[in-house]
Amino acid sequence: MSIGGIIMAIVIGLVAGLIARAVIPGKQDLGIVATIVLGIIGSVVGNLLAGLIFRGEAEFDLGGWWASIIGAIIVLGIYVAVAGRGRRSVSR
Q1: What is the residue extent of each domain of the chain?
Q2: What confidence score (pLDDT) does residue 90 get?
């Protein structure tokens, strides 16, 4: 992957992560780096799912804004569910 590809992955990750954080209700304790990582992971997940649904094959891809955003929302939703469950069990 070239420097331009890496920068594009970071930009896509940031935008997808920010949109996902705006869509999912509640407070997420994530910094900017965690938001970028969330978006990049969501981008991979979303594009893998889109490839499976529409083309019938799993491809590793970072393209596709809508799939990146949907994947980031899915990943953040799972994160909030898992992290929220851990917080509730500790509090009194």
Answers
A1: 3-86
A2: 47
